[in-house]
Amino acid sequence: MRAATRTAGLGLLVGLACAGLSSQDGGSPAARVRGLAERGQLAEAEAAARSGGAALAVPLGEVLLLQGRLAAADSAFALAVRSGGPEQRTAQAALAELAARRGDAATAERQAEALVAAYERDGQTWPSADHTASGRAYVVLGANDPQAFKAALRAFDEAVATDSQAVEPRIRLGDLFLSKYNAPDARSSYRDALKVSPNHPRALLGLAKVMAFEGNPETTAAVRASLAANTVLVPGQVLLGRLHLDAEQYDSAAAAAGRALAVDSTAVEAWALLGATAWLRGDTAAFAAARGRVLAVHPRPALFYSEIAEAAARHRRYADAARLGRDAVAADSTAPPALGVLGINQLRLGDIEGGRASLERAFARDPYHVWYKNTLDLLDELATFKTVSTRRFQIVAPAAEADLLAMYLGPLLEEAYDSLAARYEYRPPTPVRLELYRRHADFSVRTVGLTGIGALGVSFGTVLVMDAPSARDPGSFNWGTTAWHELAHTFTLGLSAHRVPRWFSEGLSVLEERRARPGWGADPSVEFLGAFKSGKLLPVTRLNEGFVRPTHRDEIGFSYYQASLLCEMIEGQWGRTALVRMLHGYRDGLTTPEVFSRVLSLTPDALNARFAAFVQEKFATPLAAIAPWNGTGPGAGAFVDAIRAAEALVEQRKTDEARAALERAERMFPAYAGPSAPALTLARLHEAGGDARAAAAALARYTALDESALEANAAEARLRQGFGDLPGAAAALMRIVWIAPGDAALHARLADLLDQTGDRAGALVERRAVLAAGAADPLEARYQLARAMARAGDAAGARREILAVLESAPAFEKAQALLLELRGRAPEERDR
After folding, report:
1. H-only helix segments in 758-794
2. Does the predicted TM-score (pTM) go above 0.85?
3. Which of the two ends of the chain, N or C, has the fewest CB atoms closer than 10 A to its terminal CB?
4. What is the pLDDT of residues 230-259, one digit of tens each?
5. In whole angstroms, what is the distance from residue 214 CA to residue 75 CA?
6. Is the dihedral of CA 225, 226, 230, 234 positive or negative?
7. Sheet containing 457-459: order of strands
């Protein structure tokens, strides 16, 4: 079984390299120096350390290290080792880390091995700080011996057991756990550290890193809390810069990198952040300058390229990420992060075998890396999938589902390709690969290497991945609109050379969903319109933040819908070609304000004002009936009050008054498709009153808005079939196919309806779907398929099918009768 880990980006080799502050340190001179350093008072800390001479050589070295003065730090640590004082083992660990930081692996390993050899011989009696030092040495050895990480955990645990008030080993434990993608244990370790030392900057930063790892919307506030405790905390500035970079706030990212480098000009992660910002901006001179500074510190800067490759991937530039991954491997062919980032992005580009080979090499060097382990396990599973090809698509799905899903996805995707190609005047290279996963955890691993991602689908360009319908509860999502959405990204990413901002690409994809089918795409909610009314929607220049750095649980959903409305407004007021010209602008390297100026002749502020007017006009009626959003749920307002009043009237069985209240509410907000939509309650009241047609009409108003209305569509189909509207019933059942296609009985019923309406081709598709969905009686299903083939004019195919049935069940009388009927047809009809 493969285990999992990841090399720490910020915590293990960068940061304050110091011994634990234990209860025994009290107010010692060393503790005072370290306290000043932890608070960011580096000049004061250095002065205090120098005043103590050789006795404070280790704290002095740590302060110098924080300032990037590596040679001076090295001398201080060497002095501490020579003097043989109580902190000599801490100095030994620091020297090993320094050598590793410079890329001198041989020296780092030799120094670390000397320390751990002594520890394994008689370390049981060592004090807490020496256990911590040994754990650090084991982490250094983990670069070539992953089993050393286990020993590091044991050493840090021993440090805590030896001194329950020690902070440093708890932070080191947290860093190590997080580097292994073990967020729960990392969080626990950082919290334990804060119990001992409240407001400890690096412990606060550790919690912020866990939150960033998990996509917590409060990450930015947590990072700022750590920086409030220590304004010169270099890893904190780097993490803040990465958050800015992910939101495409390049100036803010560069500023954070600059603040970090002003403290420590040798911080590779800070130079990588600055290099990534320059690379994403297309500033080749600044990128080359950052690379040159890193080379002066580290001769094999694989980490520099790996960090920039990851930044490129987070900006959806996957081919560039793979190229940068190759640069990282060229810098150090043994570095697992380099091999890993290359392999993951090869997979995203559809190079399955190349990606597997790179990941196998990474895993061989780092068998505790959870992303490598999970992805390699997933590739084993993927090898069992079936591929169904159409003219321009490869549909890859579990063998048990592939035929059924491809039966519907193939035509839908081909239709979508033609529609989007016409709209965007662009044809992506084919085949486009779509992978569907029956377990959401597998889809999540394919996407980010971990389980737990909340998305339904992801587009890497010409490789799309998404949940299969079986991955989620029936009625929880529409897999047709998800596929259309992800394919739209293929067009917008390709046309912009993968430079389109997230908000624009997502907005266009949601807009294309709405154009594809009635009811598909996001809908306005009471909360969204309330947020607009209260001024809580993000301005367009910050709209990316709503996707990658949300400040509340509803902001991601708000941002998707807001972005789609903005795209809808641009198309409506400037025409479809404006959308294409904007994508061209991003392809050419323009910023968002420059794109707005070139294509729309507007500043961002002017566009925000025009958008506000657009929303006000489009939703004037519901806005008048909705109260401002308070951040927790729908507040007061005529619409909400009318629904609540209607619900009370229903409870009191005052049907006529309830119906009037519901109709009044529906007029206030006709596009509302939430769970308490007036149309749903009206349908129940109409049906209870015996008016099936009015009930079906009410349901139709709702199913035309909600793309995943499973129960409402089922009720509408039942009602329409009951009063003889067979085409309407069939249409409702077809909508269910895009919500929950796995029920063979659904396809059989739909086949019957289509047959009765004369849609022979549609009935034939549904008879095939009955078998693909796992018919309860396969022989009966094959008999019905043969009948459908005959009715559709394929007598030869029907004859082959019925003969196969009779081979399995020679006494099947209905099959015998059908075979005789087929033999009795005219030769030209039989062979048609």
Report:
1. 760-772, 778-791
2. yes
3. N
4. 999 999 999 999 999 999 999 999 999 999
5. 40
6. negative
7. 386-389, 393-397, 432-437, 463-467, 457-459
Pairing label, strands 432-437, 393-397: parallel
Amino acid at 323: R
Segment 464-509, tens digit of pLDDT: 999 999 999 999 999 999 999 999 999 999 999 999 999 999 999 9
Peptide linkage before 678 cis (omega within 30 of 0): no
Contact yes or no for 18/33 (Cβ under 8 A):
no
> Cα separation of 220 and 542, whole Å?
15
What pLDDT shows up at residue 452? 56
pLDDT of 796: 92
Q: CATH assignment of 636-742, given 3.40.50.1580, 1.10.10.10, 1.10.260.40, 1.25.40.10?
A: 1.25.40.10
Please say whether the beta carbons of 544 and 537 come within 8 A.
no
**Tokens 């889809």, residue located:** 443
- CA distance linking residue 390 with residue 383, whole number of Å: 20
Contacts of 564 (CB under 8 A, 6+ apart): 506, 507, 508, 510, 511, 514, 521, 522
Supply the mean pLDDT for the chain: 92
User: Which architecture, in CATH terms, is 387-619?
Assistant: Orthogonal Bundle (1.10)
Per-residue pLDDT tens over the stretch 608-642: 999 999 999 999 999 999 999 877 665 669 999 99
- pLDDT tens, 366-419? 888 888 999 999 999 999 999 999 999 999 999 999 999 999 999 999 999 999
Are 166 and 128 in contact, with CB atoms under 8 Å apart? yes
What token pair was written down for 560?
């998707």
CATH of 1-232, one of 1.25.40.10, 3.10.290.10, 1.20.810.10, 3.20.20.70: 1.25.40.10
**What tokens does 131 get?**
């256990």
- The single-letter code of the amino acid at 155 is A
Question: In a 10 Å sphere around its CB, with 0-12 CB exposed, 13-18 middle and 19+ buried, how is residue 282 labelled?
Answer: exposed
Q: Which residue, among 761, 763, 760, 759, has the nearest Cα to 749 in the 3D structure?
A: 763
